[in-house]
Amino acid sequence: MSHAVQWIRSLVFIGQMYLAMAVVALVFLPWAIFSRRGALTACHAYCRWVRWTAGWMVGLKTEVRGTPPEDEVLVAAKHQSFLDIIVIFSALPAGRFIMKKELIWAPILGQYALRIGCIPVDRGKRGTAIRKMIAEVAAGRSMPGQLIIFPQGTRIAPGVKAPYKIGTGALYAELGQDCVPVACNVGMFWPKRGILRKSGLAVVDFLPRVPSGLPVAEFMQQLEAAVEARSDALMVEAGFVGLLPVGDGRSDGTDR
């Protein structure tokens, strides 16, 4: 299939994806207003729709490996594009994200994110941001489920090496819960910018737990080693070759 045809198919796919977001949001709105379960059901339905339509519209299949947690844990995931958000959430019964504060103003997405219990964080000075994040998480303890954080803070292009931020360690220590690392290769097929969606198999892999109670430095070392090694292996499996220097190819701050 030519590049031009795949680009057109991708454009049509993206258009229907955002139309479906509006339709699902409206259909589930009465339930979602009064029940978090309704909002979670709506979001799961939308994620299933995106995964299904990506498979037949642009030839992009998705696969979940490992064992997604069902209990209350911290989920620390590699973040390469909007697709890893879709696949990770679809695999969890009650996921909620640590997300950048600007997203609460995104139509539909922001309102449903707050309804399912996502925690908006103002990414300012590091110390202030971490304290606010911990306070927000403590305030939202009544919402059970799996709290998802992206340790690198933003989308990172395939092959780019960027540091893991200490906020994840602070959250791990505060919650006192096990952490489930998550690796992926989705950025090879669904980039952080642009229209083109490539055909192939995008994989999200839930890795063995890091137990609670470790010193933060040891936890961070184990987390980064596990996620980076497995993500690199998944990308090689999908045909990726080459690494970029630390700091290249990062997000411009637009997390969708």
What's the CATH superfamily of the domain at 61-237, by name? Glycerol-3-phosphate (1)-acyltransferase
SSE order, one letter for each helix or strand? HHEEHEHEHEHEEH
CATH class of the domain at 61-237: Alpha Beta
Average pLDDT taken over every residue: 89
Radius of gyration: 18 Å
CATH architecture heading of the domain at 61-237: 3-Layer(aba) Sandwich
What's the end-to-end separation, in Å?
A: 27 Å
How are the elements arranged and paired?
Blueprint: H1 3-34, H2 36-57, E1 60-66, E2 74-77, H3 82-91, E3 95-100, H4 109-115, E4 119-121, H5 126-139, E5 146-149, H6 167-175, E6 179-184, E7 200-206, H7 216-237
Parallel strand pairs: 1-7, 2-5, 2-6, 3-4, 3-5
Antiparallel strand pairs: 6-7
Helix pairs in contact: 1-2, 2-3, 5-6, 6-7
List keywords for this structure.
256 residues, alpha/beta, Glycerol-3-phosphate (1)-acyltransferase, 7-stranded mixed beta sheet, globular, disordered C terminus
